[in-house]
């Protein structure tokens, strides 16, 4: 005997028509404390996301009980901030685990579509100069417009090209390249690099490197740690400082670079799907890359809305490359070495 419906609705089968689900969950029905504890964000921020993403999340569907944008956003935020499709999370908004997964996919796609709107370098010279002034005010390092680092996010073993995603710890991961400003706002994020690539290789192949190599930000530089090669546009610390000026340069470099280390720690603290505490992301590399980027977009939107992105509890420090990898990063570019020497002579002698 044929079942007299075309599409099986998982939520309808699980809960029946009397359950408070889908379009019946209202933000006004719950307290601010509940929203923060379950979804990690306050009410007004969630309302903003509904306004921002609503059109994308209201696409036509064949399902008789389309999930509202509001509910989709809550489901996705619940996953991003908890790192798991918990039954209680779906129960709270009245949807099944299968529907939770669809919501995460929809919201992730909508956020990724808007990544360039929220993640970018300043477009005008005045804003770039402001970046330099702010970084200089932190520790006396001149000419800096951003700090750069990489972070590994664990993913499940992909079906193809498995070994390319195995990092030096033997785990499958994506190696993500990130640049931020002094407030922790992300200005560049590249999330699709396989975990087998070292940080220096990721940067060398990145679109970020292409921008600086073509002179797009001439007269400015980024700060990177010793896992990167010294470049004319990327200042790294000295491996073995000897003179007082070199020690002062390294101290200023470390104090300035700590901004990205703190930003990455708090990014993972807020979005627990990235920190591996609930296991690796159970998606393909492409989908995992998009989830990471979506979390980065939310991070910047949080900053724009005045949220303290550094208020999350700090977990473990970002792991650094083994000491043996440091020396090979030193002074391979003679012009870059000259610029760094001149910088130390002018500002740290």
From TrEMBL:
List where in the cell it is found.
Answer: Cytoplasm; Nucleus
Q: Which GO terms describe its molecular function?
A: hydrolase activity; metal ion binding; nuclease activity
UniProt cross-references to InterPro entries, sorted A to Z: HARBI1-like (IPR045249), HARBI1_animal (IPR026103), HARBI1_dom (IPR027806)
Q: Which UniProt keywords apply?
A: Cytoplasm, Hydrolase, Metal-binding, Nuclease, Nucleus
Chief location: cytoplasm
UniProt keyword Iron, yes or no: no
Q: An example Gene Ontology cellular component term from the record?
A: nucleus
Which cofactor is recorded for it? Answer: a divalent metal cation
Instruction: Tell me the domain of life.
Output: Eukaryota
Q: Which Pfam families match?
A: DDE_Tnp_4
Domain named DDE Tnp4: residues: 148-300
- To which protein family does this belong? Belongs to the HARBI1 family.
Q: Provide the function of this protein.
A: Transposase-derived protein that may have nuclease activity. Does not have transposase activity.
Q: Which PANTHER family match?
A: NUCLEASE HARBI1-RELATED, PTHR22930
What protein does this entry describe? Putative nuclease HARBI1
Q: Which organism is it from?
A: Mesocricetus auratus (Golden hamster)
């Amino acid at each position: 005997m044929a079942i007299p419906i075309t599409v099986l609705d998982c939520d309808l089968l699980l809960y029946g028509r009397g359950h408070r689900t889908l379009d019946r969950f209202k933000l006004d029905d719950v307290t601010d404390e509940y929203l923060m504890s379950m979804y990690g964000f306050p009410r007004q921020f969630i309302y903003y996301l509904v306004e921002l993403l609503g059109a994308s999340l209201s696409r036509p569907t064949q399902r008789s009980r389309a999930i509202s944008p509001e509910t989709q956003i809550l489901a996705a935020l619940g996953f991003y901030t908890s790192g798991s499709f918990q039954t209680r999370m779906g129960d709270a908004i009245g949807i099944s685990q299968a529907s939770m997964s669809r919501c995460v996919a929809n919201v992730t796609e909508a956020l990724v579509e808007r990544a360039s709107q929220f993640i970018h370098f300043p477009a005008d010279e005045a804003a770039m100069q402001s970046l330099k002034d702010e970084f200089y005010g932190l520790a006396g390092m001149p000419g800096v417009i951003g700090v750069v680092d990489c972070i590994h996010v664990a993913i499940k073993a992909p079906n193809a090209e498995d070994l390319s995603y195995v990092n030096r710890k033997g785990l499958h991961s994506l190696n993500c390249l990130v640049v931020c400003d002094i407030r922790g706002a992300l200005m560049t994020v590249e999330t699709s690099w396989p975990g087998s690539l070292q940080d220096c290789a990721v940067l060398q192949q990145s679109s970020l490197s292409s921008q600086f190599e073509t002179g797009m930000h001439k007269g400015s530089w980024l700060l990177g740690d010793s896992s990167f090669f010294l470049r004319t546009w990327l200042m790294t610390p000295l491996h073995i400082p000897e003179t007082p000026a070199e020690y002062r340069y390294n101290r200023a470099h470390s104090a300035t670079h700590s901004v990205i280390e703190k930003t990455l720690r708090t990014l993972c603290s807020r979005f627990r799907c990235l920190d591996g505490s609930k296991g690796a992301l159970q998606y393909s590399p492409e989908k995992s890359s998009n989830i990471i980027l979506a979390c980065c977009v939310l991070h910047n939107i949080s900053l724009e809305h005045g949220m303290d992105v550094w208020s999350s509890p700090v977990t473990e420090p970002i792991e650094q490359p083994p000491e043996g990898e440091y020396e090979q990063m030193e002074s391979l570019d003679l012009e870059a070495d000259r610029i760094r020497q001149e910088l130390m002579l002018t500002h740290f002698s």
